[in-house]
Amino acid sequence: AQSVSQHNHHVILSEAASLELGCNYSYGGTVNLFWYVQYPGQHLQLLLKYFSGDPLVKGIKGFEAEFIKSKFSFNLRKPSVQWSDTAEYFCAAPMFSGGYNKLIFGAGTRLAVHP
Amino acid sequence: EPEVTQTPSHQVTQMGQEVILRCVPISNHLYFYWYRQILGQKVEFLVSFYNNEISEKSEIFDDQFSVERPDGSNFTLKIRSTKLEDSAMYFCASTSVPGAEAFFGQGTRLTVV
Lengths: 115, 113
Known about the structure:
- The complex is a heterodimer.
- By secondary structure, chain A is an all-beta fold.
- Chain A is built from no helices and 12 strands.
- Chain A has strands at about 5, 10-15, 20, 25, 35-40, 45-50, 55-60, 65-70, 75-80, 85-95, 100-105, 110-115.
- In chain A, strands 2, 5, 6, 10, 11 and 12 form a 6-stranded mixed β-sheet that branches. A 4-stranded antiparallel β-sheet of chain A has the order 3-9-8-7, with no helix packed on it. In chain A, strands 1-4 form a two-stranded antiparallel ribbon.
- In chain A, a hairpin with a 5-residue loop joins strand 7 (about 55-60) and strand 8 (about 65-70).
- Chain A starts with a strand and ends with a strand.
- Chain B contains no helices and 11 strands.
- In chain B, strands 2, 4, 5, 6, 9, 10 and 11 form a 7-stranded mixed β-sheet that branches. In chain B, strands 1-3-8-7 form a 4-stranded antiparallel β-sheet, with no helix packed on it.
- Chain B is globular.
């Protein structure tokens, strides 16, 4: 069955540290991938998305992600995190069924950045 | 920027009571969804809705659940007889086309006591 997995459930970093959050997906065919962020008390917001083309995609707030087809991965990176990046991060992919789609989410990674 | 709005932000209800969660999707979107997130667990798909009918529902979406688009703007989720295990954050989302970026509301935290 189609799935999305995130291996880091909790990450604690100091400001200016580099960040990499893992995401793996398990299906073939057309691959669309998303990273969403949920800041405390707020709704899910799109950080970045991959549909096709350049496998290195850049999103908002200095985040980027690299789609590596051979590894079925779409890891999220940021070279230098800030305290304001404290949030929960979700990797997601649409599961196409009968012309419609639903998002399949990873378990989420809770990031805490300390000043 | 257009946004999806949900009301209420918090709802506390007694077990067995009916609740209606409300959502206003982005106005030119055609595909609507409800997801839920039980505390500490992943976001799970509940139901998708297109052209005034359910297009897909998960095994979670049993006969206690229903969705409706009563007018041109609102999209509601009704839980007929709430159970303790229905306590969760419920998110509404909408997209313009399947597979595109989904826009999420801020969620309704439902607590069943």
